[in-house]
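Q: My labmate handed me this sequence with no annotations at all. I'd like to see what the chain might look like in three dimensions before we decide whether it's worth expressing. Could you predict it?
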Amino acid sequence: MSEVTSKFKNVVRSRKLNVFLIFFILAFFILILSRLSASYTNTVKFNVALKNIPDEMIVLNDASNTLKLTMTTDGFEWVKYYINTPSVAIDFKNDVKKSNSLYVWSLSRGFAGINEQFNKAIVVKTINPDTLLFKVDINAVKMIPVKPNLEINYSPGYNVLNAIVAVPDSVKVIGPESLLSKLEVIETEMLIKNDVNKPFSAQLALKLEAIDSQINVKTKTVGININAEKFTEGTLSLPVNIINVPNNIEVNYFPKTINLSYYTSLESYNTITINDFEVVCDFNEHTNKLSYLTPKLVKSSKAIKTSRLHEQKIEYIISE
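A: Here is what I predict for the chain of 320 residues:
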């Protein structure tokens, strides 16, 4: 009987302990909530993050500037400022003015820009210091051409009509003039494609490892568009003209026409005519040792990839 009584008393005691712990935890949370709901005024140090800095400028002491803000808000808002180091943005373009060799941010000019970064539950009372000085260096700005680094192998009968260029075809770089003057082109990473028989696009990273760390490249990737399409070969018979013939000389020549083979896209084939081309021989190039002139294609259609003249010699006879 005594053993049963003892067990019963233990159960009662354990239940009392559990109830006590539950009420204790509830009371603790209520206390925390009441504390967090109350308003407090404290001062917190903020890092300064500059925005809208002109491309040609480098701020030398950007990371060393801080602001101490005295604010009033509830405990819930204060918690996030103690978890992470906060920062505020200063608009370099609108809130910073040049004074002699320095750029100056003043509280009278920049308070509104700081204050609008906080929600209505936070009241910014004071900001210290009331002035920040920024040391600035001026760099050169240059547009550098981008060279796509490609190894494209097309399926038989397929090709692209125009040269492949990057999009954008040049990128803005910023740095010391002495370094930018040596930078003439930026290549992309290598792209290898085999058996290409349809259009495709790709994004390629620029190769920046070899570029001096003092040079800031604004764009890191470029695009390329490969408009692969079916190609075919065509042939035209073109008239040959002799130019620069003196008025007192008559030149007879043979042949009067010459065949041209060209390689173009199937889509452009029917748009190409003999009017798109011009073949000439320059009489100024004739010599007594030779009885022929060399034909040259001086006008060509933009819709062809390659072309070839079948004849390389035009025989001629001079009549006085």
